[in-house]
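ok trying again, last paste got cut off:
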Amino acid sequence: MAWKFVITSDGHLRLGDVRMHRDLLWPGDLCLGGGFYCFDYVAMQVVLDRASYDYGPPQWSKLAAAGCSLKISREYEGFAFVYRHGHHEVEEIDLGEWLGIEWI
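nice, full thing came through this time. structure:
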């Protein structure tokens, strides 16, 4: 089991301690990638990183192009959501600033 996330084509960000990324998908979901996550309680961030072995890296730009905000469970309200990527130099993207967050 590992802490994994996926994003769906309608903007849902799903987090869970699962074996496979597909375990986070519901019937009819179209997955736009995923990865792994951890909590940074000092910075009050949920840090998303890496890529799903099955679905590839998250395609944030497709959500942005469609005008979708991220739909995140209200239980995580108060945390900033950031995505870290890169090989040699890590770039951090604040997803709330870029896409906006809709608490559900």
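cool. The chain has two helices and eight strands. The longest strand covers residues 31-40.
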